[in-house]
Amino acid sequence: MGRRRGVMSEHFKYELAKELGFYNTVQREGWGGITSKDAGNMVKRAVEIAQSQLNQNQS
């Protein structure tokens, strides 16, 4: 099974990591150093942002 192309840009992922408080871990250890909980929180926040933008565009 091939790797899927990422949906989130690297810049966006770094911004989310800063917002959620684990940017230093990413800098030190890379994305593999974050916990699954942090990864889940990052995806949850990205979905919240996307939904908010969709709602704004529909208004």
Q: What gyration radius follows from the Cα positions, in whole Å?
A: 13 Å
Indicate the low-confidence ranges by residue numbers.
none
Q: How many helices in DSSP terms? A: 3
Roughly how many Å apart are the termini?
Answer: 40 Å
User: Helix- and strand-based class?
Assistant: mainly alpha
The largest sheet, given as strand count, sense and whether it forms a barrel, is: none
Helix percentage range: 55-70%
SSE run: HHH
Overall number of strands: 0
Beta-strand residue fraction: under 5%
Arithmetic mean of pLDDT: 91
Which of globular, elongated, flat, extended, rod-shaped describes the shape? Answer: elongated
General description of the model:
With 59 residues, the chain is mainly α. The protein is 69% helix and 0% strand. It is built from 3 helices and no strands. The protein has helices spanning 10-20, 23-29, 36-58. Helix 1 (10-20) packs across helix 3. It is elongated, with a radius of gyration of 13 Å. The mean pLDDT is 91.
What's this entry about, in short?
By secondary structure, the protein is mostly helical. It is built from three helices and no strands.
Write the SSE topology.
Layout (H helix, E strand, L loop, with lengths): L9 H11 L2 H7 L6 H23 L1
Helix pairs in contact: 1-3
Main attributes?
single chain; 69% helix; mainly alpha; 59 residues
